Amino acid sequence: MAGPGDTKRSQKKLIFLLVFSVTIMVLAGHLSQIYNNGVSLLSEIRVLSVSHPDRRFGQLSRQLLAARKEIANSASKSGSLESQSLGLQAYFQVFDDLRELDLQLSQVSGRVEKYSDQASFPIIGAKLFLYYYYAFQRYLNVADSDTLIWLQKQNPASLPGPNPAQNGAVPVSPLPQPIVAVLSELGLYNKSPFCAQKIDAENLIRDQVRFIDDVMHYNYFANVAKEYFYANIYNNCFESIKYGPSYIPSMDELASSVSGLIAPYAMWILPGLYGAIGATIFYLRMILDPLVPDPSKSRIFHRIVLGALSGMVLAWFWVPDTRFGTDLANIGFSLFALCFIFGFSLDVFFAMLDRFVKVSVGAIGQMGADQAKT
Length: 374
Description:
The chain crosses the membrane at residues 265-288, 300-319, 331-353. Keywords: Membrane, Transmembrane, Transmembrane helix. By secondary structure, the protein is mainly alpha-helical. Helices cover 74% and strands 0% of the residues. The chain folds into three domains: 4-42 and 251-361, no CATH class; 51-120; 177-238, no CATH class. It is elongated.
């Protein structure tokens, strides 16, 4: 017959398991949401990459430049209102397509950057802890350049110590470097993403840039390239177009970045969590049965660890090539449900391992027999 001490220990054990199970379920739900967001974002990037946005952006930019020149020529020749109207319609149609593509690229790039923070710091307070840890390194002058750049991106004004540029950190510019170089030479760069100063567009296009003139010697192709280059600057400065044909985000790099972020969730974090949840539910059911003696803490801990390991091992067998990022989007809740079942019933997991060992031994023996015959 159980004494009062045993009853209190059982109650404490039950409370611990309840709190642990609720905590791990909330954590699994939160991390599953992060994983689903990454899968959705990866699918969106792959769909967008099919249309070759870099090539499409260049085509639209050239069409927009041609439409502007045609409108200007028509106006200078005092063309009919109908021809000017058709030219304006063509211009605005191309401009709308370019703005839509630019907005898509900007949104996808922003979502990838936001998801990078979300997936890298899934626990509340993790990023703040890392921030102060890096800030302390910077205060002691032991931080490397990557750490300084990361700190500068977060909150450069509140950082103690010397200027990051003094320690080799590269300031982050809101504009692409080609545009920064041109606007700096013309004295028009004011560190604004869309050139907030009111610059005369005609003077901007007519101005000369020394490195273009020196390299291309005023030949025809130099004038064409210069006109196209300044037209893209005009789009950035006055039309709020963020990107240009030569500096748009690479879809392959974005997809690779997102795949690298969701790989740990698919391969071991979520399978391990669901396996641990299954093992915890197993003991919660056992404690509710008055005919079964309460397990010891060591047995509970041991089974929960085994449940987590069984989930991770199942993920390795489920999609063995996910480490290369090929089928990460195909891992879904069918795998996580099996991880939960394996954690709940370890007998199924060990039976699978025993069967796998038998199959492997038989295959190896067959290979040896075939080699002996030859």
